[in-house]
Structures are given as C-alpha cells and as structure tokens.
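Working notes for the structural subgroup meeting. M.R. asked for a predicted model of this chain before we commit to crystallization trials. I am recording the input and output together here so anyone reviewing the notebook later can reproduce the run.

Input as submitted:
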Amino acid sequence: MNLKTICKFILIGFLGQVFVYCPPKGGGNDLLFLALAGSQPTGSQQAGGGGSSCDLTPADPLYSDQWHIKNTGQSLGISGEDANVEPVWNELNWGQDIYVAVVDDGIDIQHEDLQLTYLNYHYDYVDSDNDLTNHYQYASHGTSVAGVIGARCNDKGVRGIAPLTNIIGYNLLKNLTSYNIADAMIRNKNIVQISNNSWGAPDGTGKLDDSLAVTTWKNAILDGIQNGNNGKGIIYLWAGGNGSSFTAEPPFPGISSNTLVVDLADNSNYDGQANYVPFVNAICAVTNTGKHALYSEKGANLLVCGHSNYFYNEGTLAITTTDIRGSYGYSSTDYNSTFGGTSSATPLVSGVVALMLKANPNLTWRDIRYILAKTARQINSTDSDWQTNGAGLKYNHKYGFGVVDAQAAVNMAKTHTSLGGYSSLLNYTSSYDDPSPDIPIPDNDSTGISRTMNVSTSITKIEGVLIEVKFSHQWFGDLEITLTSPSGTKAYLAKQHYCPVDNDNDGLMDADNCPNYTNKVWFFGATVFMDENPNGNWTLTVKDLDSLATGTLHQWRLQILGR
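Returned structure, recorded in token form:
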C-alpha cells in the first residue's frame, strides 16, 4: 500500500520540519499539528531524577553534543556561541523549585532523563485526567522540548538548561479546542511560573492568522498575567515561527527550478499569539555560528533569540535532547539529535528564565521581559538591520534585542528592582486616526502614504506597543507597513512577501496566493520601542510595492503599555 494512503505529510508550524504522521487505528486529531503543549507540579512533590544538586562537571554521556550549552566549535560552530549557562550552574543554580508548564503534544514522563512521574498536575486533554502515560507514544515534540528545559543531571543522556526545574506537561495539541487553549494558559496558575509554548499558527502561509488567538485565549493570558504565580504573573514564552524561508518549485511565479527563497514569506507579526505584545514573549532562533537561522521569522514583536539548528543543511548542528522511549519518536533511541526550529529555541529561553527566577523569585513577568532585553548579547553586528532605539537599546528584526545570555540575565536578576506586576502597568490607548474619506494606497509606489498622530501620556518608558490597523487590499503580500516612533525608531510591521502554497503536497511550494482582505482589522505588536518615551509624533506608513492589486487605509490607533 502506498504510504500516502495511510499516513499524512504534515508541515508543522512550530517546528518547521516535514513529518510523516500515521494516526492510530481508529483515527487521529489533525489539529494536533497546529500546535504542541506541556504539564505541571507542586508543593512537596519535587522533581525527581536529580536530587537537590548537580555535579559541576557534567557526566551526562551526550553532554559534549549539546553545543547550545557549551559550544567548543563542534561541527564548524563558533566556540563560545552558546547560552552561557555553566557559570550559573557553578553558583549552584539549577532552577530548583521553579515550575514550568510545557504546553505541547505531551511528555514521556517516564523517560529516564525526565522522570516526571511524581506530579499530580500534568493534564491529559484527551482523557481529561492527570495521567500522560496513555498517549506518550505521540508526544515526541513535547518530550524533546521538556529535555531542552530540564533533562536531569543524573549521568544519563543529556542535560537541560535548568536540570532541577519542576516540569508540568499538558497535551493540549491532542485536543485543540478554544476552551482547552484558554484552559492550558491558566491551569495551575498559582503554581506555574513559566509557560513554554513551542507551537502556533501554521508556518509559511504569509497570511495574518489569529485563528488560535481567540478572545478566550487572550482573556486567559491576561488572567495569567494579572493573577498567576501569586500575582507576579506567568511568563509566557512563544515560538516566533519557522516560516521565514521556503523551497519553491515550478510553477511558482518567477521560479524556473527548485529555489530556496529567504525572507519573503512569513513574519512573526502575522501570528496572533506570538504578536500579543507585551503579554507574550516571542522567541527567535540563531545557529551555532551566531547567525540568523533562515527559517526563523522576523518581526518587530521579537524579544530575544535562543540557539537552535540551521535547518538548511549547511553543516551546523541541531539540538540534542530527549526523545520518546523506544522507536516511537524522532529516532530509534531515547534521544534526539535532530531537534530544532524556534520550537527548540523557546525552551532554551524558558530554561534561562527558570534560572533567573531561582536567583530572584520575586521577579514579575515585566521584570523578566525587561531583563532579557537589557542583557541580550548582540550578534552578527554587521547586519544592516541593527538599529539603536531612543533608549539606547540595539534591536534587529531578525534577532530582537539579541541572543539570550544566561549568566548576564541571572546576574542582573539578582539585584534588579522590580517594575511591579500588572496593577502598576500604565496603559494608554489613542483615539482612532480615522480619515474621511478613506485613503487609497498608491499602487506600485515606493513612497506610499503616511499618517501621523501625536501622543501625550504619563507613560515615560515603553514596555510594548500594539498597533491596530484597519485596511483593505486585494493582495496583502504587496504591502509594507512601518511605524516610526517620536525617537525615530522604525518598526517593520509587514513586509512585501509571498504567500506560498503547496498544491501537490510534496513539501515544495508551487503557488503564491496572498489573500484579498476587506476591512481587515489586525493588531501588530512591537517590542522594538522598549524603554523609549512615547510622547510626541508617531507615523504610520503604508506602501504598495507591486502593481495591479490596490487597497485602502481605513483607520489606525495605538495602545502603549509601560511605566
């Protein structure tokens, strides 16, 4: 029997890799492949497998393969291009007593290098109970995510960034309903401190997609921010997306042979979840050479990058982590050396956040966001997209504020004076700039149209900006939308791009199909303005950079959050 008659080829949005999925007898849930989720513990039920301390000299057999923790130049990598974790471990900080929810497709909680069977707080969204073992054989993604965060220091296999954290697993992606999505954000909210989400809308479409960022999800995020973690707020980390590049084949427009197309597809600002600034922290990916991973989506919403694979077979290593026991997962062993995408970069940052919270448990969700931005390490400094914002912070739409540095982040966390929680966050929402009549966007014109509004608010330091834009356009991919702050910092909210389609389901794109949006309302998130003073003139510029399709700007406004 032909494989395609019994299996499905799926391009998973969160991982950026093509998998063959063979549903169990009796059917499977295809919605699983839009996302992936985790689970949780508490109280005296402490994490097993590592005791209360770790060896300062890791004896885990595969540790030398974990270049993201200690890069010695493996596989032509750049020595030292890693998360800089060992100096934190040398201070006896392994993330003890910190609780991380891995919201994914589940976790193999009986894995020798995880040993998470102690928890009553895991949740199985298929059977509506706390036992993840019934479906462990389909939890390959979540098991690998969990290993990046907290694989135990037990002289077996690999080691996680924070090897003594308490990891909780929710297999949300096996039953992805609006109710369950919201529930997974706030389940055990008084215990969970970090929520790792290595999933999201499908990658590579080039379309504005808030199908998973429904109102109930947003309300749950705000609940977690306001009331979770004993009022300090849950820290939500989200994969920035893997759709920045794709391989096109004829009859793709303008393509005569199979071609790798870079930076002309998805953008993290098109994902309604990763784009929910400042409440969600979007994470990008860099390689072991300190460069942008080509699949990692750009965006003005990105916070920082974590280390991950390169994905396009140019000799750099993937991430070595845990895999499902036996032959069910990515490999025939219990370990996976091929993990990658922003799916892997995100739990790396989650592990660093666990170390920060161990160093200072009083940090709020706002503190974590601020410290990560301030301590991120600038890489690839000659890249032309680096700009210095009005507060002196360097930002790049590929890298956010840079790559996460565990030692620098933990050192700042120790002495940081808290910004406070949600209750002290200032919120300014402007009136609509609502021109009448609506303004046509000039077709195939590099100047476009610009609209300016003046902001006057008590906020003096920005922590995040949401830009609500209502527009119509016959071909969304033609548009470039930018926002310029009073300090002159520019956020690219939308870029001219393709909307690839794989019509023959072979993993190669053969059509460009950007949507015709009519009266479309979209909220673009921007992190690039961190710490700037928002008072003064803000300018929105909209350009149509190709011919034939036309459009109109209807209205726009700003929501600025800060202190």
